Amino acid sequence: MAELGRAALVICFALSTYALAAGAYAAFRRRRRLAHSARNALVAAFAAAAVASLVLVVALLRDDFSFTYVADHSSRRLPLLYTLSAFWGGQEGSLLLWLLILTAYSSAVVAVNRRSAPDLVAWVVPILGGIATFFAFMLVAVSSPFATEATRADGLGLNPSLQNPYMLAHPPLLYLGYVGLSVPFAFGMGALLARRTDERWIVATRRWTLAAWTFLGIGQLLGAHWAYVEVGWGGYFAWDPVENAALMPWLAATAFLHSVMVQEKKGMMKIWNILLVVLAFCLSLFGTFLTRSGILSSIHSFTESPLGGWFLGFIVIVTLGSLALIYTRLPLLRARTKLESLLSREASFLYNNLLLVAFCLTILWGVLYPILSELVRGESSAVRGPYYNFFLRSFGLPLLLLMGIGPLLAWRRTSTRALVRASAWPAAIALLLGVALLAAGAGSSVPGLIAYSFSAFVIASIVVEFVRGTRARRAVAGEPWPTAFSSLVARNRRRYGGYVVHAAIVLLAIGVAGSSAYDTTHEAKLRRGQSMELAGYTLTYRRLVERQGPNDRELRAIVDVSRGGTADGTLSAGKNQYPVEQQTSNEVAIRSNWLTGEDLYLIAQQINADGSVIFKAELLPLVNLIWLAGFVFVAGSLIALWPDARESRRLADRYGRSTVAVRA
Amino acid sequence: MTLALVLGVLLAVACVLLVSYPFLADPEARRDRLEEPGELERRQIELLERRDRALAALKELEFDHRSGKISDQDYRELVGPLRREAAEALRALEPRAESQPSRVRTPTK
Questions:
Q1: Is B68 inside any structural domain?
Q2: Backbone φ and ψ of A518, nearest 5°
Q3: N or C: which end of chain B has fewer CB within 10 A?
Q4: Of the candidates A51, A412, A471, which has its C-beta nearest B67's C-beta?
């Protein structure tokens, strides 16, 4: 069936090219039927990409090793779910997933907006078609998942690190995020091409952007948890270039989600917003380039490939083309209003944008520096954790503080007295907590102490906002507290959903500060019966156990845990050996205390032939708040994403039923 | 191979039909002009955005004042210009006697 897959990809390429060429001609010459035809081509391209994907899934499920891709990334003994995840376990498959998601997004977004903004959609179609053309071309001509060979008896299997339940969700979610950023990009560029300076494109893409941003955020968090439980080095984020590649577009999109509110409320920052949309999309392409090109070696970079040049060329074309278009439309994008006060909500969004973009560009420099230094000096100089941690503290802590101050500021202007009054309670709580933590010995890490105090400030200011809002709502509508609270949230979902997301970021900050600034680590080589101490815990190595897994040999060191002389369970850390893949993976043992949020983390770093084991044990305070943050983040995003019938009616009235004439 | 070929051809035919549907369904279109807002409608959308922005800002200002985020003095200074802005937008949007009930479009060629 490889022929069907190849044919489907060729058809997809032809349809995408048609959507690009015919769509651009139709939009330029205002041809209605041709524009509809180009729009249908995007839908048909999705169908073709779906057929190609189906062919690959069937080949994986049937262990059809006549497909080179299947032979390289799967094996007969690979469990069913990992056989399915092998779809995106390799370069060609993950590119196909990009194309599938892109064409799905494209079909959906043009279908949803085809009646309400036909002139805008007419320009969006060729832009999305252009992106799809590039990816379809890559799959047809450069890196096909449907290459065939003489059937092998068995495949090479899947990288053991990818044989983890998180890998079933992490890459697709990341891709939903990466690819989702093409939607605001296409609409932003479409609005410029159509010379529409109103906010129609923002309204059309608001939820798509938020959804893509949520997917990207959750994808990263799942990736962090995967690294934590699977990679086995005792952490969750290592500033790996590919981790950074996902973080950068997320930061740019975060900045956009804030600054776009300034455009909506005050008609300002139009140029900045369009630049952010371009930055986020180009960074998502750059992330894919890093992963696919093999330009940086990391666990995510599958292999050296011929894709790099093509990707780089595409990124350059997209960046220069977008900037040129923005330049030509500058007169249309000038704001008519100005910032009224440096102490206002819009000013706080401006500060937050500057910090977010500065952090994003700092990370970009850290990623690019090794490549540039290799190009210029002939030797690669890696940029390591301390560089990033410095900027995380430099930009992250002020951002955290701004998250607390922002909600206390009103739009347009706030007097210093009103701000002091509004922030009195949050500041007092933050100060009290800081002093209490200092007394408890948390002063060992100044950034950690500041992060905790700022976190308390943010949480308190969010609570104050909810209480004040509910009280005001209650005073107006005379509703009981619960009703007033729910109608407060329902009437302004974006604002209060945003506050819940802020609470998630605070949980994340507390978790990161706790686990990185106040962690305890101890390494020891133990023979059977010997013990090691770690922050009040006693870990006693008992024995080695060996068992056969479905496609691996599993070796575990059994360790008894006790605290204050009382037995506190058993941990089993070790290694898995994969004979087909000829690789070994670290299998860590984690004991979580959900009450305190801390984890006892054990790695069997080396298992010796004489039965002795070199252990690394870590106690990570509050680390589980990071994962809890994921649930709160999703809850906040869902509140913000939830459809609002009142708002829909207002927008329909604004863009869909403007029937009265205008007095000049 | 044969099955793959048949399925490939079926897929191609279905895609061609879908792409050519706008021409097949409307082979002799009298009006093949893509709708786009004319100057008048663009201006109207702009005014509607201005109106909504001013009304939302007024609503928010009232709420912020009531919840104590805005001082009385700031409220007094801000509320006037916002009301004027909303009133201006509303006035500009008032229907005129000669206004047409249909959407304003670019004339069809």
A1: yes
A2: -125, 25
A3: C
A4: A471
Q: What is the pLDDT of residues A429-457, one digit of tens each?
A: 999 999 999 998 888 899 999 999 999 99
Range A352-376 average pLDDT: 91
| Maximum pairwise Cα distance, chain B | 81
d(CA A430, CA A464): 13
CA proximity to A131, closest of A13, A34, A251, A249: A13
* Residues A468, B22: C-beta atoms closer than 8 Å: no
B9-20 residue pLDDT tens: 999 999 999 999
Q: Which residue does chain B place closest to A653, by CA atoms? A: B48
R_g of chain B, CA atoms, integer Å: 26
| Domain count across chain B | 1
User: Which residue in chain A is spatially nearest to B99 when comparing CA positions?
Assistant: A661
β-pairing, A531-534 with A537-548? Answer: antiparallel
A11 touches chain B (CB under 8 A): yes
Lowest mean pLDDT among A34-38, A55-59, A67-71, A231-235: A231-235
* Torsion sign across C-alpha atoms A339, A342, A344, A350: positive
In a domain, B59, yes or no: yes
| Helix/strand/coil for A617 | strand
Bigger pLDDT: B4 or A601?
A601
Cβ burial, residue A567 (10 Å; 0-12/13-18/19+): exposed
Interface residue of B19, B23, B46, B58 to substitute, partner A, most A CBs within 10 Å: B19
Is B53 a member of any domain? Answer: yes
pLDDT tier at A231, thresholds 50, 70, 90: confident
Among B13, B67, B77, the residue to mutate for chain A (most A Cβ within 10 A): B67
pLDDT at res. A384:
85
Question: Which of A141, A218, A210 minimizes the C-alpha distance to A175?
Answer: A218
Question: How many CB atoms within 10 Å of residue A370?
Answer: 17
Residue A653 is predicted with a pLDDT of 80
- DSSP single-letter state for residue A406: G
pTM above 0.80, yes or no: yes
Flag whether B7 is in a domain. no
Which are the contacts of B38, defined by CB distance < 8 A and separation ≥ 6? B104, B105, B106, B107
Cβ <8 Å between B19 and A44: yes
Residue A642 structure tokens: 């939830």
- Helix, strand, coil share of chain A (percent; to 5): 65, 10, 20
Closest to A543 in 3D by CA, of A616, A607, A617, A619: A607
Model pLDDT, residue A371: 82
In contact, A592 and A602? CB cutoff 8 Å = no
Chain A environment of B35 (Cβ under 8 Å): 32, 118-119
Which range of residues forms the domain containing residue B79? 37-92
